[in-house]
Amino acid sequence: MIIILMGVSGSGKTTIGQRLAQALGWPFYDGDQFHPPANVAKMQQGMPLTDENRWPWLHALRAHIETCMDQGVSAVLTCSALKQAYRECLVLDEAEVKLVYLKGDYDLIHERLVHRHGHFMPPGLLASQFAVLEEPEQGVVVDIVHSPETIVALIREQLGV
Q1: Which segments within 84-155 are labelled E, that is strand?
Q2: Dihedral angle, C-alpha 18, 124, 53, 1, nearest 10 °
Q3: Residue span of the structural domain in which 121 resides
Q4: Number of domains in the chain
Q5: Which of 7, 16, 73, 128 shows the greatest Cβ crowding within 10 Å of its Cβ?
Q6: H or E stretch at 106
Q7: Using CA atoms, how far apart are residues 75 and 66, in angstroms rounded to an integer?
Q8: The pLDDT value given to residue 120
């Protein structure tokens, strides 16, 4: 099984992903590590990514998911996956690739971003992410108001892992 944690920047994808992967004994892959350097530079400059910028990144993530599936390796992966088209690219097989939407409101997430250090995504880009977000109709939805431990438990319970 591949679990994709999705949501806007600051929704806790990395924190939850690392803890979930550790609890399951699975490898963890941060989707941010798959961005080409030009995407990172653009975001560092406070410029939102376009679809044209995102597609090479999404295809790199898809290739990694395919490799995991081909090797029979379960994993936890993070990706904002803001649009339905992006999720369709990544969810190759709904029986094997599970989507978990870490949902939160703008104010809570903005507050988290303001206090986050060492990440290339500035708080000023959050509005652009909410503007393009198409909330998923499939998958598991978890409200991020809970503690990380509770969120991991809710995900495990809903996915049966």
Answers
A1: 97-103, 140-143
A2: 20
A3: 2-159
A4: 1
A5: 7
A6: helix 106-114
A7: 11
A8: 53
Give the CATH number, domain containing residue 64. Answer: 3.40.50.300
Whole-angstrom distance, CA of residue 65 vs CA of residue 46:
29
Q: What is the pLDDT of residues 52-101, one digit of tens each?
A: 998 999 999 999 999 999 999 999 999 999 999 999 999 999 999 999 99
Tell me the C-alpha distance between 57 and 46, whole Å.
Answer: 18
Is it the case that residue 160 has pLDDT exceeding 60?
yes
The pTM (predicted TM-score) of the whole model is 0.90
Residue in this structure with the two tokens 């996956």, named with its chain if needed: 81
Beta strands, E only, the chain: 2-6, 28-29, 75-78, 97-103, 140-143
Per-residue pLDDT, 9: 87
